[in-house]
Amino acid sequence: MREAPARSIGPGAVVRPTPSRPPGTVTQMAKAPAAEVQVGERTVRVTNPDRVYFPATGATKLDLVEYYLAVGPGIVNALRERPCMLHRFPTGVAGDKVHQKRVPAGAPPWLEIVRVHFPRYGQHADELCVTELAHVVWAVQMSTVEFHPWNSRRADTEKPDEWRIDLDPMPACPLATVRRVAHVAHEVLDELGAVGWPKTSGGNGLHVYVRIEPAFGFTDVRRAALAFAREVERRAPDAVTTTWWRKDRDPTAVFVDYNQNARDHTMAAAYSVRGVPEATVSTPITWDEVDTVEPGDCTLHTVPRRFAELGDLHAGIDGAVFAIDELLEWADRDERAGETDGGVPDEPGAG
Ligand SMILES: [Mn+2]
C-alpha cells in the first residue's frame, strides 16, 4: 500500500499520516485516523488530526500542531523552564474547557515536569515544564489550545522572574484608549529604565512583560505591579482604573490588572492560541505597532507568516533584566499614604 507523502512543515518537523489498513481487514476495532509528527528526535502521535477545533475558521487539531511548529522558537522561549498550566479543549473550542495543572500518568519519559505548591490548599502539582518543542506538540495532542505559564521558572518557582502588565479594557473601552494607555505604560517603564515587551492578549487587550531579577516572592512582585499601575492611573486618570470592584470601574477605561502577578495566576503565553472560535493568538508586537495592530487579525492563520518574516520579537527578553526595588519604594510610599489594596482574588477576605 502506498503511503501518503510526508508533509514538511518547518525545520526538523514532519507530519506523516499513519497508513490506513486495507479494506476488509477485521483485526480490531477501526482506528481513528492519526498523524505522526516528528519534532527533532521525538515522534508524537496525534490522534483525531482532522477534528475541527475552531468552528469559525475550520482549523483542525493538526492545523493547531502545525501552527505551533511554525512558531516553535517563539512558543518555547515563552514557556521555557516555567511551570505551565494547560487549557484543554478535548472536542474543540466550542466544547468544554479543562484547566489542567497536572501532567497525567502515562506521559512520555522525555517530558519534563516541575513541582509547584499551592499553600492555600495544602497541595502540590507536577506541571509541564517545556524545554523543547516536542513538549508543546505533546500538549496539543492532549488537546491543549492555550498555554498558561507561571511567572517563575523551575530553578526557583517561588521567585517570579517576569512582571506582567495586563491592560484589560472594560466592556465599553475603545481600542484607541488601550493604545493610549500602552504608551503611558511605556513612558513610565522608560523612566524606570525597564524594557517592556508588548503583545496582543488574543482578546481586546494588550500585555507587556518585563524580565526581572528573581529576587522577591509573589507578594512583593504584585506590590510592585500595583504601584506601577497606580502611577499609570495618575498619569491618565480618565483612561485608567485600578479599582478593585468590577462594578465600580469606569466601563470605558482600561483596568491595569496587577493581580495577574499574584500567586497561582497565569496568563496566556506569547504565541499561545486562544480558545476562541477565531483562533486568535497572543502576538508579540513592537512598540511602534501598538497604534496599528488589529488584535483580531493576529490568528493561527496569519501569525506563522509574520513569524517567518520578523522572527520572535520577544527573543531578547532574557537579556534586559530589571530590578523592582524602586517600584517597591513606590509601594511603601503609597501604603504609608494610606492607599488601600483590595486584596488578591479568590483569597479568603479578599476585596
Ligand atoms: Mn487581560
Describe the structure.
With 351 residues, the chain is of the alpha+beta class. The protein folds into 2 domains: 8-18 and 31-149, DNA primase, PRIM domain; 162-336, DNA primase, PRIM domain (Alpha-Beta Complex). The protein is built from 7 helices and 16 strands. A hairpin with a 4-residue loop joins strand 5 (52-54) and strand 6 (59-60). Helix 1 (61-70) packs antiparallel against helix 3 (133-141), helix 4 crosses helix 5 and helix 5 packs across helix 7. It is globular. The N and C termini lie far apart (66 Å). Manganese (II) ion (MN) binds next to strand 12.
Overall CATH architecture of the largest domain: Alpha-Beta Complex
Number of domains: 2
Largest pleated sheet: 5 strands, antiparallel
Q: List the uncertain runs.
A: 1-5, 25-30
- For CATH, the homologous superfamily of the largest domain is named as DNA primase, PRIM domain
Work out the number of β strands.
16
What ions, cofactors and ligands are bound? Answer: manganese (II) ion
- Rg of Cα set: 21 Å
Query: Distance between termini?
Result: 66 Å
Mean pLDDT score:
91
Examine the coordinates and then state which fold CATH places here, giving the name of the CATH topology of the largest domain.
Answer: DNA primase, PRIM domain
Please tell me what the overall shape is: globular
Fraction in helix: 10-25%
Number of helices: 7
Category by helix and strand content: alpha+beta
One letter per element, helices H and strands E, the order comes to EEEEEEHHEEEEHEEHEEHEEHH
